[in-house]
Amino acid sequence: MNEQEQMLTSVMNCRRVDLYVDKKEMTPVQERQYARMLKRRQQGEPLQYIIGHCEFLNTKLFVNEHVLIPRPETELLVEMAVQKLRMTTRRPLRILDLGTGSGNIAIAIAKRIYECHVDAIDISREAIMVARHNAEKNFVQKKTTFIWCDMFNWLGLDEDLIKPYDMIISNPPYIPSADVAGLPADVQREPHIALDGGVDGLAYYRGIIAAAGKFLKPDGYLMLEIGEEQSAALKAVFKQYSDFQKVFVFRDYTDADRFLCAQYVPDTTANN
Ligand code: GLN
């Protein structure tokens, strides 16, 4: 659907085909709503905030200005994660999603893996509210726990307090701070805390990689979405932690490096 069709189907609460076959007329209220939407769009607001939802892996998710709009490439991250989880024989599976935003990753995994529980963290209280709403709408509230917490505080927790996970997954903020101001106008309307990854864009990865081993079961996976220029620097970060072996980089639809998958294989002989 083009943008106009998306706005019209949203205002008239109808399918795309209804716009063309047996064409329904808009009521005066709907006409005013549509005009307001067009104006907001002209002023540079992202379409998904205006219509109040987006599609992520065939799932409808509510979004507002407090959450990053899920990107198509993140669908690939989830598909890779689901493949890995399906190959894992342990059940129930425990997954941790860091910086969940709208809850897109957590909800998509919970919908696809039969016996699993996803803990999902976000520093924004408003984002947690959006994510909980989306989990309810998608009937996975019992398989998900959304926690309002700074991920660095969570990662700093004592390992005895946390039951280990089979997978940690994250699409953290990864744009270098100085580049945020140069992003396209509609991206600028998204929460900067969901985009700004510190001076070199790697601040969140450093924290996650340093702490991940503490929270992962042996053979557990760390799956990350990354910026396309960041794979070499991140591989170097992983080198500091010998318990992460098999660090693989995967590309997105545009053939850019976009994901990192590492497996936690602790060296059990280290203390002998
Ligand atoms: N991929 C996002 C973008 O297109 C960035 C999201 C992030 O920083 N995790 O802007």
In short:
By secondary structure, the protein is α/β, with parallel strands linked by helices. The protein has 2 domains: 3-43, no CATH class; 65-264, Rossmann fold, CATH 3.40.50.150. The protein contains 11 helices and 9 strands.
Description:
This protein is α/β, with parallel strands linked by helices. The chain folds into two domains: 3-43, no CATH class; 65-264, Vaccinia Virus protein VP39 (Rossmann fold, 3-Layer(aba) Sandwich), CATH 3.40.50. The chain has eleven helices and nine strands. It has helices spanning 3-12, 28-42, 47-51, 72-87, 104-112, 125-137, 151-155, 177-180, 185-188, 203-215, 231-239, and strands at 53-56, 59-62, 93-98, 116-122, 144-148, 165-170, 216-225, 244-251, 257-264. The protein has a seven-stranded mixed sheet with strand order 5-4-3-6-7-9-8, with helices on both faces. β1 and β2 form a beta hairpin. α4 (72-87) packs parallel to α5 (104-112). The longest helix is centred in the N-terminal third of the chain and has 16 residues, at 72-87. The chain is globular. The termini are far apart. The chain binds glutamine. Residues 71, 171-175, 187, 195 line the site of glutamine (GLN).
Enumerate how many helices there are, as a single number.
11
Mean pLDDT: 95
Which class of the largest domain in CATH terms? Alpha Beta
Within the CATH hierarchy, at the fold level, what is the topology of the largest domain?
A: Rossmann fold
Low-confidence stretches: none
* CATH superfamily grouping of the largest domain: Vaccinia Virus protein VP39
Hetero groups in this structure are: glutamine
Number of strands: 9
- Tally of distinct domains: 2
Strand order of the largest sheet: 5-4-3-6-7-9-8
- The geometry reads as globular
Helix percentage range: 25-40%
Query: Radius of gyration in whole Å, from Cα?
Result: 20 Å
Approximate strand percentage = 15-25%
Give the biggest beta sheet: 7 strands, mixed
| CATH architectural arrangement of the largest domain | 3-Layer(aba) Sandwich
